[in-house]
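Q: What structure does this chain adopt?
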Amino acid sequence: MDYVLNLVWLVLGFAFLIKGADFFVDGSSSIAKIMKIPTVIIGLTIVSIGTSLPEAAVSITASLQGNYDLSIANVVGSNIFNLLGVVGASAVICPFLIDKTIMKRDFPICIGVTVILAFMLRDNTLSLAESIVLFVLFIAYIILLVSSALKNREDAGEDYKVLSTGKSLFFIVLGIAGIVAGGQLTVNSATFFATALGMSELLIGLTIVAVGTSLPELVTSVVAARKGESEIALGNVVGSNIFNILFILGMSGIVHPLSCDVGALIDTILLIFVCLIMYFVCITGKKATRSEGYVCIFIYVIYVIYAVLRAYNLLPF
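A:
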């Protein structure tokens, strides 16, 4: 009976995620046009924060409950999936344009904060002071985005359908609710099946929970790409990765200093290499192609295999 019930929750979770993302993209895009704010800024702020709410809920709750490994594994695993799985799947389903602003400003920041996190985890801990530094950097990044938005207002295109302000806000709230509820249902049911199959908690954190909490980013980016909002498609991923490290780990570490094993540092270093690879792939072309998307997905599958083998001590490192 438990298996049937969890399967129902899993299907409902996907349904909430897909429809929630649809509402969220429509609402946030309209707000951007109404306020004459570049769509890329909306993708880097409202959309990325909204789709990262499941990660925030999981990591902060894990910190409160003393599951510190899960807090870090969820964020690092989600960021790897965002760059490889989300960007890869979005490109395969609907190739999208690469936004120059993201490549010049936000992607380098994403790489930089990942390097900072790796440096902080060198002693297998994230102290209170280090967590405060991450949170302060998050505030500084938001100020940078707001300042950029105020300097670069743009008019909505004549062919773009803009919703009313009230309807746009309603769509955003409804979309976030659907995304959060869908992410939670999906993670809970997927974790149930993973546990029933005998997977370790750390492996669940790096794979099932990380992918589950990143499903909002996946669905939102795919929907945005299909709607022609390429700025949201890529901005959502880059913004979410920055938000995950600076805000989520910052807040989790402020709640309680985090500790982890050497595996978390290894995964963070791998994340740095993934960031660099994706940066050079994106900066050398104007569009994320299907072939590049397939390569990203293939690399992610290799990473999952590595994580599984390492979790079961089948590798020497």
